[in-house]
From TrEMBL:
The lineage of its organism: Bacteria, Bacillati, Bacillota, Clostridia, Eubacteriales. This is Uncharacterized protein. It comes from Candidatus Hydrogenisulfobacillus filiaventi.
Length: 111
């Protein structure tokens, strides 16, 4: 069974946190919302760490063990809106990815 990292941006914090709760309510344990301040793209040089919950540290299963950094580049995160935003990171089983993506879109997230 494989896993996918899903990254979504939100303009409003209440939408991001409502989506986080909806994902957790749907059984997705590895979900986190991070605030991304308004900064020049080259000033953002880190990726948000996710809590692994019951997944634990499984290097043989998860390609990107500690962060969602594989989706970032040195020019800054692609797709982030101008100004402040909220970044939702979720690690979901491959077979449930579409269901999680649907929930994210329903809450206004941009994948």
């Amino acid at each position: 069974m494989g896993y996918r990292n899903l990254l979504a941006t939100f303009t409003f914090p209440e939408h991001a946190y409502a989506c986080e709760q909806a994902l957790r309510g749907a059984g997705f344990d590895v979900v986190q919302v991070d605030y991304v301040p308004s900064t020049p793209p080259d000033a953002l040089n880190h990726a948000p760490a996710v809590e692994w919950g019951r997944q634990g540290y499984q290097p043989e299963v998860l390609d990107d063990k500690w962060t969602a950094a594989s989706a970032w580049d040195h020019q800054g995160p692609p797709g982030l809106i101008d100004g402040e935003s909220y970044l939702l990171t979720a690690v979901v089983p491959e077979e449930d990815a579409r269901r999680a993506e649907t929930l994210i879109r329903q809450h206004g997230g941009r994948l």
